[in-house]
Amino acid sequence: MSILFELKVTEHFDSAHYLREYPGKCKNVHGHTWYIEVVLQGENLDSTGILIDFSELKGLIKNIIEPFDHQLLNEQVPFEVDNPTSENLARYFYHEIKKKLSDKPVKLVRVTVSESRATAAAYFE
Questions:
Q1: Which of 10, 25, 40, 122 is deepest in the core (most CB within 10 A)?
Q2: Distance (Å, rounded) from C-alpha 17 to C-alpha 100?
Q3: 30: annotated binding-site residue?
Q4: In total, how many domains does the chain have?
Q5: Mean pLDDT, 10 residues at a time, over the chain (125 residues)?
Q6: Does residue 116 come out as left (phi exceeding 0), alpha (psi in the -120 to 50 range) or beta?
Q7: pLDDT at 99
Q8: How far apart are CA 64 and CA 96, in angstroms?
Q9: What is the pLDDT of residue 1?
C-alpha cells in the first residue's frame, strides 16, 4: 500500500454573475465571495519534506482566479457562453489548475467552489 499525502488550499475572489434561463432570483445580477478549495494527493516528498510548496500552489491558484476578481463572470471566457454556475466554475478551475500542475509530482483530486457557507459544488475526475 502506498503512503499518500493530501494537501488542501483555499483561495477566494469576489465577483458578480447571473444565471441565464433560470426561473428564480439568480437570474438577476448578484454577487458572491467565491471560495475555491483545491485538494491534491501525492506520494513523494522532496528533501525538505514537502509534497508541493503551499505558497507555490496558492500563487498558481491566484493567477488563475485573478482575471475573475471584481468582474461580471458572464462577460469572462468561458462564461459568456457557459452559465457561471458553481458547477461550471468548479469544472473550469479544475481543468485550468490541472494544466498548471502537469509537471508536478501530484494528482489533482478535487476542486470545490463555494458561493456561501451552505452551498458548494465539487468537480473531480
A1: 40
A2: 26
A3: yes
A4: 1
A5: 88 98 97 98 95 97 98 98 98 98 95 97 98
A6: beta
A7: 98
A8: 7
A9: 54
Q: Report strand pairing: 5-17 vs 107-114.
A: unpaired
Q: Give the pLDDT of residue 2.
A: 75
Which grid cell sits at 119?
A: 452551498
Catalytic positions, written as ranges: 26, 70, 115
Q: Which CATH number goes with the domain that contains 111?
A: 3.30.479.10
The residue segments making up the domain with residue 15 are 5-33+42-123
**pTM reported for the whole predicted model:** 0.94
Q: Does 17 show up as a binding residue in the annotation? A: yes
Q: How many residues does the chain have?
A: 125
CA 98 centroid distance within chain: 10
Cell numbers at residue 22, please?
433560470
The reported pLDDT for the residue numbered 3 is 72
Please, which residues have CB within 8 angstroms of residue 87's CB and are 6 or more apart in sequence?
113, 121, 123
